[in-house]
Amino acid sequence: MEDYARNVAAAMATTLGPRLVGVYLHGSAVLGGFDARRSDVDVLVVCEGPMTAVEESAAAQRLSRERLPCPAHGLELSIVTFSAAQHPTARPEFELHVTTAPEDTKCVDGRDREGDPDLVLHFAVCRNAGRLLGPGRPAPEAFAPVPDDLVLAQLASELRWCTGHAPGEYAVLNACRAWRFAVDGALVSKVDGGRWALDLVSGADGELVRTALDRQRCLPAAELDPRAVQRFVHHALGRITEVSA
After folding, report:
1. Both 167 and 95 in a single domain?
2. Rounded Cα distance, 155 and 178, in Å
3. Beta 20-26 vs 40-47: how paired, if at all?
């Protein structure tokens, strides 16, 4: 994965030249819990200003699965301007979004879109733990602090989405990491969120979290009861709402 991440950074340096602010690894690769069988390689790229159509086309080609095969589940990469990274909003604007997972390969031009709310958490993780790939500005210089209310709102939005769209283990562990942030402001991986929650839950909830951790790590484990997952996520949303109020 390390060689692949460096190759992504080199591709971006070739594409953007001196306008490149930096290429930053984030997500489970820096927070922990990365598993090539199911984890994406998460990358944020910051450039000095808006990309040209020629740059967008070149980036899409250089990052494609054919040109740059990913050794993990896939690449998830967004390119944003320095201004967007310095002024986080509920829907940060982006220049280009590229994913290369086999079931979700796409290249999205962000110039005519309202922005991507997922970038709120990406910005926050990059600011706190992002790893600069190659030359560029350190992450704390490239990304301004993200207000806690924006982070909490996006964590809650992700949890609402999880209950109907994501695997049970993803929803449970995402609820754990959201709960952790609501308690002490720490942004951690889903796996670390689950481990943290085990000290606070017992009985059926404890078994639910332990099973979710096993499934997330691709260990033998029973199916999760959707009703139990929904209940656990609902409780986590309640805790976040209490903090936000």
Report:
1. no
2. 6
3. antiparallel
Domain end point (choices 118, 145, 172)? 145
Q: How far apart are CA 159 and CA 157, in angstroms?
A: 5
Mean pLDDT of the region 207-226: 93
Residues 123 and 179 grouped into a single domain:
no
* CA gap 48, 28 in Å, rounded: 26
- Among 46-55, 92-101, 106-115, where is mean pLDDT lowest? 106-115
Tens digit of each residue's pLDDT (9 = 90 or more) over 66-102: 999 999 999 999 999 999 999 999 999 999 999 999 8
Nearest Cα to Cα of residue 54 among 3, 83, 95, 26: 95
Q: Are 170 and 46 in contact (CB under 8 A)?
A: no
107 near 60, Cβ under 8 Å? Answer: yes
Same domain, 197 and 123: no
- Domain carrying residue 173: 149-244
